[in-house]
Design goal:
The chain is mainly beta and about 100 residues long. It has a single domain, classed as predicted glycosyltransferase like domains (Thrombin, subunit H, Beta Barrel). The protein is built from 1 helix and 6 strands; from the N terminus they run ββββββα. The longest helix has 9 residues. The chain is globular and about 30 Å long. It holds the Pfam family PilZ. This is PilZ domain-containing protein.
């Protein structure tokens, strides 16, 4: 007998390759070295991040996300909704640098 609490459908995992860690990091976002604006990283994986922004971001745009202790990271905006956006890094973060960011 299978109980509902023991079953998690595959679609609930979404398209994520790895789980994201909840964080609260002050960062900066810019395009081509211009328009550096403050943002907040609210979750993070080695492949991408969720951002709270103060201005709308366009899906598909290329950005530079400056992360504390790491510096600028190239990323593509994969989705955007009002003042929140999800981005995918062009190159995965170094696992040690990721662990330090998540540890706070």
């Amino acid at each position: 007998m299978l109980f509902t609490s023991e079953y998690e459908p595959a679609e609930s995992l979404g398209r994520r390759r790895v789980p994201r860690a909840p964080v609260s990091l002050d960062a900066r976002v810019g395009r081509g070295g211009l328009d550096r604006a403050l943002c907040k990283v609210t979750d993070l994986s080695i492949h991408g991040a969720r951002l709270q922004t103060y201005s709308a971001m366009k899906k598909g745009s290329m950005i530079w996300l400056t992360l504390p202790g790491i510096g600028p990271v190239a990323a593509t905006v994969r989705w955007s909704d009002d003042f929140e956006a999800g981005c995918e890094f062009r190159h995965p973060l170094d696992p040690l640098a990721f662990a330090e960011l998540v540890a706070g």
